[in-house]
Each structure stands twice: as C-alpha cells, then as structure tokens.
C-alpha cells in the first residue's frame, strides 16, 4: 500500500487493539465455536471438539493459497495487488462454483493461527494494498485471532471480507471495526433459487439483512488515490436466463442501501462444476443479458459501477 495512503488511513482494528476490544472479540468468537452459530446455518455443533457442520470443518484452518491477486476489482488491485488468502470449504454449495476444488473438496493445507498471521504480514511486506479474506465466514474466530497477533507485529493495511453474502448479522456485529471493506456477492433475489442452486433455503432474506448491516458499519466505499480503504463493495454475477434476478437486486441496493454503493456487475459466468446438470445454467451469458443488467442498474440510479473485464 502506498505510504501516503497508509498515513491517511488507519484500519479500525488498530484502535480496537489499543483499547483491548480486539482481544475481547477473539474470546467471544472462539466460544461460539463450542455451539456454532457463526453463519445462518446455525448448526449448533461443537467445532472446538472437532465436530463439523454444513461448512465441513472443525476448529482447524485450511488455506489453499496466499498471494497477490491482480484479477480483483481495480480499486483493490492497484499497483501491487490485493493480498488474497483463500480459505477452504464454504457455508454454501453453489453448483456452478468456479473454485469447487477449494470450496467443496477442501483442497489446501492445515495451518496454525500463527501461520495465518504471518501470511497477513507477508502480504503486507510485499506491498499488497489489503488483506483479502476469500470465503472467510466459517473461520471468523481464527481470522480475528490471527489479526490480533498480526497487529501486534505491525499489520496496518485494510481487511477485506470477501464472502458469498450468506452471513449472520450477529457475527457481522462482532466484526465491526475489524473489517474495513465488506465485499459480498448478492447471488439471487429469490429464496427458491438460493435453495436450488446454492443449497440454502433463505438466501434472499438473509443477504438483505447482512448487506444492510455491512453498510451500517462501513458506509459507501471510500477510495484514496485509486485504492479502496473502507466501505461496501457489492458483487453481482449475471446468470443465464435471469436466474440471479438482477432487477430486484439492484432495486434493493438503490432503495434500501445506497445509490452510491460501488457495484461490480460481473459477466464471467461459466458453467463450472455441476452446472451442466441444470440446463438453464449450462451456458455462458449473452452480451444482451449483460447489457440488460447494466441498463437496469442505471435505471435505479446506481452510478458507481465496475464493468466486467469479460464484457
């Protein structure tokens, strides 16, 4: 991260650490693993005892990759990349997941919380503009503990929470002041599609509450010298045959969150993994479908739109 940006923005977790609040949050979150309600699945299993719920992991941390990423949003990538940490498994089961080896088959390496902290410090050392936590939901206690360790060793760049949108408001509240940039997907505007294609029965109900809580905490995306430092960035993947229900998604963002929301409207859908089992998902989107999504977003007054590089 550029020196000038670091001097002008201090992540909230640094102040929470000074006040001792960060350590308190770690203890609260670790206790939740005894009867896990971290995400809306509410599995109520003791993950500290090795039990596994819908996310298919216990108390261990499984990481599949740590590196600068240059394929993320331009305001995250900058000149030195977004410092991505890819976590294995997921609390959703999207049949078209492009990272299914990681999300479904848990491809990766088991690491300690200290190694996770060192990974964050390494990404900062090589110049990444942020720590981009990819699919972090089911590892929140371990991640916050790693941040506590890392901040005491000099971590000072923004934390990006890169998730599928299926989040518990109660858990998000425990992340207030720790996460600088929330980056949720809004996948569908129909609970039935959430169940059919991602295995969760209440996706649309849950994601709306989650995104509103994220925005309450961090507000609209703030960008300094071209680099995002704090705020909400929403991703919306356009799916074939309007399965994503884009109109209701954009209407919700504009009318219930903020018309100044930074939205990445993505065109890179491919029928990965088991998508070919659903004929309606077994093709790429058309240019016309993507243009229609853009038109609808603009109709609702959304202006901060990042176009897909695949467009």
From TrEMBL:
<keyword id="KW-0670">Pyruvate</keyword>
<dbReference type="GO" id="GO:0016829">
    <property type="term" value="F:lyase activity"/>
</dbReference>
<dbReference type="InterPro" id="IPR016431">
    <property type="entry name" value="Pyrv-formate_lyase-activ_prd"/>
</dbReference>
<keyword id="KW-0408">Iron</keyword>
<feature type="domain" description="Radical SAM core">
    <location>
        <begin position="85"/>
        <end position="207"/>
    </location>
</feature>
<keyword id="KW-0479">Metal-binding</keyword>
<dbReference type="InterPro" id="IPR040085">
    <property type="entry name" value="MJ0674-like"/>
</dbReference>
<dbReference type="InterPro" id="IPR013785">
    <property type="entry name" value="Aldolase_TIM"/>
</dbReference>
<feature type="binding site">
    <location>
        <position position="97"/>
    </location>
    <ligand>
        <name>[4Fe-4S] cluster</name>
    </ligand>
</feature>
<protein>
    <submittedName>
        <fullName>Putative pyruvate formate lyase activating enzyme</fullName>
    </submittedName>
</protein>
<dbReference type="InterPro" id="IPR007197">
    <property type="entry name" value="rSAM"/>
</dbReference>
<dbReference type="GO" id="GO:0051536">
    <property type="term" value="F:iron-sulfur cluster binding"/>
</dbReference>
<dbReference type="InterPro" id="IPR058240">
    <property type="entry name" value="rSAM_sf"/>
</dbReference>
<keyword id="KW-0949">S-adenosyl-L-methionine</keyword>
<feature type="binding site">
    <location>
        <position position="94"/>
    </location>
    <ligand>
        <name>[4Fe-4S] cluster</name>
    </ligand>
</feature>
<feature type="binding site">
    <location>
        <position position="90"/>
    </location>
    <ligand>
        <name>[4Fe-4S] cluster</name>
    </ligand>
</feature>
<dbReference type="GO" id="GO:0046872">
    <property type="term" value="F:metal ion binding"/>
</dbReference>
<keyword id="KW-0411">Iron-sulfur</keyword>
<dbReference type="Pfam" id="PF04055">
    <property type="entry name" value="Radical_SAM"/>
</dbReference>
<keyword id="KW-0456">Lyase</keyword>
């Amino acid at each position: 991260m550029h020196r000038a940006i670091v001097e002008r923005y201090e992540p909230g977790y640094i102040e929470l650490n000074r006040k001792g609040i960060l350590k308190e949050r770690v203890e609260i979150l670790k206790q939740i693993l005894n009867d896990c309600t971290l995400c809306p699945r509410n599995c109520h299993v003791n993950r500290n005892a090795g039990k596994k719920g819908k996310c298919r992991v216990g108390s261990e941390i499984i990481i599949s990759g740590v590196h600068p990423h240059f394929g993320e949003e331009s305001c995250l990538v900058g000149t030195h990349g977004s410092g991505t940490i890819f976590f294995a498994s997921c609390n959703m089961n999207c049949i078209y997941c492009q990272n299914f080896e990681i999300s479904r088959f848990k491809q990766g390496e088991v690491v300690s919380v200290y190694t996770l902290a060192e990974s964050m410090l390494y990404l900062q050392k090589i110049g990444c503009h942020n720590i981009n936590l990819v699919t972090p939901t089911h590892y929140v206690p371990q991640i916050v503990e790693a941040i506590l360790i890392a901040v005491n060793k000099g971590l000072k760049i923004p934390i990006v929470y890169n998730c599928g949108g299926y989040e518990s408001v109660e858990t998000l509240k425990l992340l207030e002041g720790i996460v600088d940039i929330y980056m949720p997907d809004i996948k569908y505007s129909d609970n039935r599609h959430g169940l059919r294609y991602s295995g969760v029965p209440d996706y649309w109900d849950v994601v709306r509450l989650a995104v509103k809580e994220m925005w309450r905490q961090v507000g609209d995306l703030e960008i300094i010298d071209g680099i995002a430092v704090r705020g909400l960035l929403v991703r919306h993947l356009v799916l074939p045959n309007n399965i994503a229900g884009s109109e209701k998604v954009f209407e919700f963002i504009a009318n219930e969150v903020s018309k100044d929301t930074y939205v990445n409207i993505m065109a890179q859908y491919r029928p990965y993994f088991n998508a070919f089992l659903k004929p309606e998902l077994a093709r790429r989107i058309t240019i016309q479908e993507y243009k229609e999504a853009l038109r609808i977003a603009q109709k609702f007054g959304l202006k901060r739109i990042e176009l897909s590089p695949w467009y």
